């Protein structure tokens, strides 16, 4: 699934985008697989509220906070996007340097552009980001795990999930080959992160960042899509920003979308996911801006996501306690209340399998 492949079917475009890496130019269908193909959204600086903006690269978004003493960014995405953004900010807000770059989590597709701002910015992240950038095999999205425990990223580590769930997990062979400069079928964690500035300001559970009268609370919600995620909370504006959780790369217009469920929910207990939802729900906010998604979301969207996880957990654990086999669960657990959600047909069985494996692994 190369990014140059122009697919007629919007579903494929959605799935390309949803595979989370590689296809940043593709716009997701947001649960409208039968619709006409869409062009990638043009780049824009979109107002979230007051002095808070989002800037997009397809369905990948950076956050921008403009204060009287400078600018704060979250998620520089990739070098091309970051260079565009730097230029755009210099034009729109002249004389305001970017003072801080926050990484929402360590996955390269959201932070690779950080170096563009290294001349003026300090880099801020949850402390787990340091470990994921230290040269060891990092936590990767899309079930891209170190299958033979050799610390290197092999084509197989990528293609096993890609072939099992095309367009949902893993990433394209073409993307891998683009990184594998010497063509030996292996890439190192450094191929992803050597040029990414490491955070110099880190925190464990919560920290407060202030600049030019603006206050941001950085909150580690628990493990979910990533193991080093930061939720950014603006108490004065009642705005929350986070990336890949709750809205994953499949989300476009609506959060009523089954989660991608790769790696049995990214190798993290469902209880941690539910705790993460609750951490966001406990904040007093009106607007949820996400690193993916064409629109702004609300607290109700977070609540519905948490309810989905609880429902799935209860359905599968209930079936397990009755001694039902996984095959029976695949056939009989219809997740009825969620029939109208995007990717229901495509991901219902995968979600059941992920929950089953998750609940067996994490007691
Ligand atoms: Zn991610
Ligand atoms: Zn993402």
Keywords summarizing the entry:
single chain; alpha/beta; Metallo-beta-lactamase, Chain A; seven-stranded mixed beta sheet; five-stranded mixed beta sheet; 18% strand; binds zinc ion
Summarize the structure.
This protein is of the alpha/beta class and about 375 residues long. It has a single domain, classed as Metallo-beta-lactamase, Chain A (4-Layer Sandwich), CATH 3.60.15.
Structural class by secondary-structure content: alpha/beta
- Tell me the domain tally: 1
In spatial order, strands of the major sheet run 1-2-3-4-5-6-9
Q: Write down the overall mean pLDDT.
A: 90
Task: Indicate the CATH architecture.
Answer: 4-Layer Sandwich
**Number of discrete helical segments:** 12
CA-to-CA gap between the ends?
37 Å
The largest β sheet comes out as: 7 strands, mixed
Describe this structure in words.
With 363 residues, the protein is α/β, with parallel strands linked by helices. The chain has a single domain, classed as Ribonuclease Z/Hydroxyacylglutathione hydrolase-like (Metallo-beta-lactamase, Chain A, 4-Layer Sandwich), CATH 3.60.15.10. The chain has 12 helices and 14 strands. It has a 7-stranded mixed beta sheet. The chain has a 5-stranded mixed beta sheet with strand order 10-11-12-13-14, with no helix packed on it. A two-stranded antiparallel ribbon has the order 7-8. The protein is globular and about 65 Å long. The chain binds zinc ion (ZN) (2 copies). One zinc ion (ZN) is lined by residues 105, 107, 141, 225-226, 244.
């Amino acid at each position: 699934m190369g990014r140059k492949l122009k697919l007629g079917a919007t579903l494929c475009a959605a799935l390309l985008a949803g595979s989370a890496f590689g296809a940043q130019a593709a716009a997701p269908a947001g649960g409208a697989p039968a619709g006409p193909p869409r062009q990638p959204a043009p780049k824009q600086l979109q107002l979230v509220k007051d002095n808070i903006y989002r800037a997009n690269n397809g369905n990948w978004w950076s956050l921008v906070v403009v204060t009287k003493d400078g600018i704060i960014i979250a998620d520089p995405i990739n070098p091309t996007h970051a260079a565009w953004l730097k230029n755009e900010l210099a034009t729109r807000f002249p004389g305001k340097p970017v003072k801080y770059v926050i990484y929402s989590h360590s996955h390269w597709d959201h932070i690779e552009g950080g170096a563009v701002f290294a001349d003026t910015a300090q880099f801020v992240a949850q402390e787990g980001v340091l470990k994921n950038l230290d040269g060891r095999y990092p936590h990767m999205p899309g079930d891209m795990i170190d299958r033979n425990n050799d610390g290197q990223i092999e084509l197989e580590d990528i293609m096993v999930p890609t072939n099992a769930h095309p367009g949902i997990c893993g990433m394209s062979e073409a993307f891998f080959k683009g990184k594998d400069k010497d063509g030996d079928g292996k890439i190192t964690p450094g191929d992803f992160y050597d040029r990414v500035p490491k955070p110099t300001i880190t925190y464990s559970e919560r920290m407060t960042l202030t600049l030019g009268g603006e206050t941001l609370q950085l909150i580690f919600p628990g493990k979910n899509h990533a193991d080093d995620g930061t939720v950014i909370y603006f108490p004065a504006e009642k705005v929350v920003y986070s990336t890949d959780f709750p809205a994953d790369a499949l989300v476009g217009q609506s959060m009523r979308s089954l989660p991608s469920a790769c790696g049995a929910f990214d190798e993290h207990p469902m209880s941690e996911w539910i705790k993460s939802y609750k951490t966001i729900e406990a904040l007093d906010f009106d607007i949820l801006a996400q690193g993916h998604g064409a629109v702004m979301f609300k607290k109700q969207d977070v609540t519905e996501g948490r309810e989905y996880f609880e429902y799935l957990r209860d359905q599968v654990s209930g079936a397990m306690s009755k001694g039902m086999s996984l095959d029976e669960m695949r056939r009989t657990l219809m997740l009825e209340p969620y029939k109208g959600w995007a990717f229901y047909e495509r991901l219902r069985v995968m979600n059941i399998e992920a929950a089953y494996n998750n609940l067996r692994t994490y007691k």
